[in-house]
Amino acid sequence: MCGIIADYTSLKIGGRAEIFILDSEDKISSAFAEKCVVLGKGTNVLVSDKGIAERVVINRLRGIFFDKNFVTVASGESLPNLCRECAKRSLSGLEWACGIPGSVGGAVIMNAGAFGGQTADAIEEVKVLTPDGDEVILRQSECGFSYRSSQINGFVISAKLKLTFSDEQCVLEKMRETAKARSRTQPTGKSAGCTFKNQGLGAGYYIERAGLKGARCGGARISEKHANFIINDSGASASDVLALIEKTERDVYARFGIKLQREIKLLGEF
Ligand SMILES: Cc1cc2nc3c(=O)[nH]c(=O)nc-3n(C[C@H](O)[C@H](O)[C@H](O)COP(=O)(O)OP(=O)(O)OC[C@H]3O[C@@H](n4cnc5c(N)ncnc54)[C@H](O)[C@@H]3O)c2cc1C
Predict the structure, then answer these.
(1) Distance CA 183, CA 252 (A)
(2) Ligand 1 pocket: which of 11, 35, 41, 44 to mutate (most atoms <8 Å of CB)?
(3) Predicted pLDDT of residue 52
């Protein structure tokens, strides 16, 4: 079916594409029968106003299976849901992730992290559909994890995580602390999370010191609360957001000689 990608991203930006909703493992081979782009929850992407020429596979694979302190989770599950289910079973190790709105697959590929935790630390193995159409199991050491990235080539189908038994109230308390810290430091509104990877004193520090808090390109604005967030607050286009990203890169480089590294992924033609 043809659809508007904006409906599938947290920035609420993006033009048209052919969309395939992948809601069952049985449909994997037909989903990937042609060249395509994968979207989980679309919380770390900026999609072109012109849309995406390839088919977009929207990952809605669900399922969480517990075996003692191991959990095998389908890649389309949301991190907040996974965290809640782990807390119910007194399993600790993912409390840092409870407020990240992405999917498990996106978190694995991006090695999402926060408050000193990262996805890689909990990974035992990852099931991947390779570009050749083979299903392989990668052990943690074969995933090439580094700060906010991995070397996984293909579609993440599921992940097996190793957690530790704790006390339900302790897990819930840590999750509450994380949620409080998040709402104290991060803005609400339509965003794709942090625009740039942290380096040195933190990307937000340099952006703020370059005087860019509140800077605007069209409908896109740099958050006053956290300078590493770009907010779509008045019908921003992808070009508005990209123009603001490029201005930020130029101004931070001019002021500090630092080349910011983009964390958000650009999809489609710009
Ligand atoms: C309010 C807010 C707060 C955030 N806070 C954090 C934070 O604290 N820490 C953090 O690390 N991130 C944070 N993020 C960013 C984002 O939520 C994470 O990076 C998340 O893990 C991305 O998951 P996703 O499903 O949304 O990925 P998407 O945005 O859908 O995709 C991101 C990339 O991963 C690829 N991808 C997605 N799923 C798969 C799959 N199954 N197999 C292969 N490739 C795949 C996509 O093709 C794309 O290149 C935040 C975002 C928002 C909006």
Answers:
(1) 26
(2) 44
(3) 97
